[in-house]
Amino acid sequence: MTLDDSMSLVDIHSHLVPGVDDGARHVPGVLNAIERMTHAGIRRVVTTPHIDASLVLTPERLEARLDGVTQAWEQARSAIREEFPEVEYLRGHEVLIDIPEPDLSDSRLRLTGTSFVLIEWPRLQVPPGTPRVVRHICDQGYRPIIAHPERYAGMMHKTELPHQWKEAGARLQVNYGSLAGRYGSEAQAVAWRILGLGLADYLASDFHGQSRLKIYKKETWAELEERGGQEALDLLFRVNPARVLEDVEPLPVPAVSAPSPLLQRLRGMIVRRERSMERQG
Ligand SMILES: [Fe+2]
Questions:
Q1: Spatial separation of the C-alpha atoms in residues 204 and 161, rounded to whole Å
Q2: For residue 41, is it within any domain?
Q3: How many domains does the chain have?
Q4: Least confident piece of the model among 22-26, 40-44, 198-202
């Protein structure tokens, strides 16, 4: 599988509802992002604005928030239909778990209304008792996907946590950019470790619509191909994300061996230098 624009990939994590969170600010920004996603081979985008789980406790605030997101999403959707009719622009949320027993019964909180829900822990820290929270969500009949497990503070040393999350019933979504070193060397090493243990279920962009960011770096793609072969890539990028839309469990992904720490560090340095140039530009 080569990285080109004919792959029909599905991306289940991005911030492309205009003006509602720290992602794309306006419709032209969303269109620019979608154009670049099509060049990366993505044809179905489940965009996932941030929302706090605690908002459910105040129904009128929740409704106001969801109404705003719906309006902005519909605006972007009609512009995308005009300009990129080949792209399906779908929605969910990235639910920040700021209460221990979140109520996820409102289908708008979940990925395209399926039983899957993309969750994250607050402030990129892992609070105590997260496996219990995962179990609580599963007990309600939903399927939690933990966003970017590699990005939380101290994950380098919390080697048991990814196993505990999976055992509790979570699926894991690694950010593609983490493998390239976009979020620092620790997130990079942890991302490769999670793939190396065969614990990752999905790769996604977590794209915030930055105008210069390369969504999928070809070097990382080649690296993945070399190490995990076609099968892991196909499962992580296409098959398993598509299965979310069908509301069925991901298929097991074979382990992908990590590049040497030295090679990772070198690649990461290049990516972070590019990133600081993006910011300056
Ligand atoms: Fe995100």
A1: 21
A2: yes
A3: 1
A4: 40-44
97 CA → ligand 1 middle, Å: 13
Question: Residue 214 domain-assigned?
Answer: yes
SS3 66: helix
Residue 255 near residue 195, CB atoms below 8 Å: yes
Structure-token pair, residue 148? 């970017």
What are the start-end ranges of the H helices in the chain? 27-39, 59-83, 130-139, 161-168, 176-180, 185-196, 218-234, 240-245, 261-280
- In the predicted model, is pLDDT for residue 6 greater than 70? no
Check pLDDT > 90 for residue 17.
yes
* Residue 280: other Cβ atoms inside 10 A: 7
Beginning with the edge strand found earlier in the chain, give each strand of the sheet holding 9-11 in spatial order.
Answer: 9-11, 42-47, 88-91
The rounded distance, in Å, linking the Cα atoms of 137 and 131 is 10
Is 203 a domain residue?
yes
Half-sphere exposure in the Cβ direction for 263 (13 Å, CA): 9
Ligand 1 center–CA 219 separation, angstroms: 23
Per-residue model confidence (pLDDT) at position 141: 97
Domain presence at residue 1: no
Sole residue written with tokens 């966003």? 147
Using the mean position of ligand 1's atoms as its centre, give its distance from the Cα of residue 57 in Å: 22
Mean local confidence (pLDDT), 249-267: 83
Distance (angstroms) between ligand 1 centre and the Cα of 207 equals 7
Chain segment 200-247, per-residue pLDDT in tens? 999 999 999 887 666 666 777 777 887 766 788 889 989 999 999 999
Domain that holds residue 51: 9-280
Contact between 118 and 111 (Cβ < 8 Å): yes
